[in-house]
Every structure is written in C-alpha cells, then in structure tokens.
Write a structure and sequence with these properties.
β6 and β7 form a beta hairpin. By secondary structure, the chain is α/β, with parallel strands linked by helices. It starts with 5 loop residues before the first strand and ends with a strand. It has two helices and eight strands; from the N terminus they run βαββββαβββ.
C-alpha cells in the first residue's frame, strides 16, 4: 500500500520552503535545479524538483511558465496523530513562526487536541492528537 504525498508548486520559494520544513520536521532534503534537469522553461537556478523525506514527506517545485503556484483554500495538510503529542506540539509552534495561527492548538471538549496554522509559505496545516487515556 502506498501513502498519499503532497507535491507543492511554490512561487519561486521552493528552496526556502523545503529548507524551512527540514528545520521543522527533520529528514533528508534533496533539490534539483532546472539547469541540472536540462530544462530551460524557467530560471536556471529555480528548483525543478525537491523532496523532503522523513517523518513528514513533501515534494515541491518552483512554478514556472504557465504553472500556477499553490493557493490553499478549502484544504489543509492534516498531521493528525502522526507523531507523539510533544512532537506535534513542537511542529505546530515551528510552523506558526512567521505564519498565522487560525485556531490555537488546544484541548477540545471531546478530549483530543488540535489546531490550525497557515505557515509563512501559505500552507495550511491541521495538527492534532489524542490524549493518553
């Protein structure tokens, strides 16, 4: 069985974004420029393909030509129960730096905790966890 992957077209900020996400989540980061890929449809130093592989795996590229950059409406990247509560709380705090907290990470009436943040790159995250019973 394969897991779903997120592939993001950033507006020229892929290098900065994936480096930021590596700082948040850890993992191994690889990026390839358009020039390295033999492409001439954008700036030679633009990222043609980047990947962060680790506890959270993300793929990204710089939007070039007619590509439209990411716009998050009616969608969030959900990290619900994907790590220990302390790790998820740390990720929420890190993603909030320079971003906008939409709903603080907090305990809910049903006993779980969750919250939502739009990070500095415009990606909306839903992070939450169950409490040990």
């Amino acid at each position: 069985m394969t897991a779903m992957s997120i592939y993001i077209w950033f507006p020229g900020s892929t290098r900065e974004a994936l480096t930021f996400y590596q700082g948040v989540f850890g993992g191994e980061l690889a990026m390839h420029t358009l020039a390295e890929m033999g492409r001439d449809d954008g700036p030679a130093d633009a990222i043609g393909h980047g990947m962060l592989v680790g506890p959270v795996t993300l793929y990204a590229t710089d939007a070039v030509g007619d590509d439209e950059p990411v716009r998050m409406t009616g969608l969030s990247v959900a990290l619900l129960g994907t790590a220990e509560p302390a790790t998820l709380s740390r990720w929420f705090a890190s993603l909030s730096e320079g971003g906008t907290v939409l709903d603080a990470l907090q305990e809910r009436p049903w006993g779980a905790s969750d919250g939502q943040v739009v990070d500095r790159f415009g990606i909306r995250w839903l992070i939450g966890f169950e409490h040990a019973g």
